[in-house]
Amino acid sequence: MTDVTYPPLDRLKPVADGVWIVDSGPMKAMGVIPIPVRTTVIRLEAGGMLIHSPSRLTPDLRRQIEVIAPIGHLVAPNIAHWTFLKDWQQQFPEATTWGAPGLRNRAQVRRAGLRIDHDLEEAAPGWPGELEQIAVQGAGGFCEIALHHRPSRTLILADLVQNLERRKLPLVLRPLAAAAGVLAPDGRAPAYLRAIVKLGGASARDAGRRIVATRPERVIFAHGQWFDRDGAARLERSLRWLS
């Protein structure tokens, strides 16, 4: 059986000064395709740690993070990446939770009793200044907030790029992943999401240009083989559909 994940799982892996990833999963995309899941952890200049797109929380992972600094911020960057957030809130009740615009109004979120302290927005008081926000809005209330960590020139996404490795997928699902446009080395957002975002019109295209203009050294995203080098060029190819 193929393993779509990137072991070791649920452990901090350093990628740049003050930036780590945590690989986890798998989960099912579109209810069918098994995909890996990735969290990004950032040590903030003002102190404390920010957890982007939290995945499952284990006691050992908690210890690894808290050895470095206390957890101060939890971020749900779009309407899909919030399902593990309540577990983190229960263990870190003092942490501030930030959610993509519209997340707090979703029925599933209200039923789960998830607390959203602040909506993500560029001028939000209390937001870490070293993290630039770029909002990509589409149809049906979709919004993903891209983050650019200026000190390390690291771009952090959730679903706007998915880059699944063919060799890691079950044979029967490889044609489906290819049709969705999410296969490495130049993975994109899946076809259904590209259609939703394109309906955002000029605003979405402008956000795409702003994201590409960050010219990051690396690009981290939630699903697949992230861009650990040549980030600017690879990002430009993967977001060409949004130009």
What form results from the Cα inertia axes? Answer: globular
Largest sheet: 7 strands, mixed
Evaluate the radius of gyration.
17 Å
Number of helices: 7
Mean pLDDT over all positions = 95
Secondary-structure map:
Layout: E1 12-16, E2 19-29, E3 33-43, E4 49-52, H1 59-68, E5 71-76, H2 85-91, E6 96-99, H3 107-112, E7 118-119, E8 131-137, E9 143-149, E10 154-156, E11 162-163, H4 174-180, H5 191-198, H6 201-213, E12 218-220, E13 223-224, H7 231-238
Q: Could you explain the architecture of this structure?
A:
The protein is α/β, with parallel strands linked by helices. The protein contains seven helices and 13 strands. The protein has helices at 59-68, 85-91, 107-112, 174-180, 191-198, 201-213, 231-238, and strands spanning 12-16, 19-29, 33-43, 49-52, 71-76, 96-99, 118-119, 131-137, 143-149, 154-156, 162-163, 218-220, 223-224. The strands form three sheets. Strands 1-2-3-4-5-6-7 form a seven-stranded mixed β-sheet, covered by helices on one side. It has a four-stranded mixed β-sheet with strand order 8-9-10-12, with helices on one face. The radius of gyration is 17 Å and the shape is globular.
Q: What's a quick, concise take on this entry?
A:
By secondary structure, the protein is α/β, with parallel strands linked by helices.
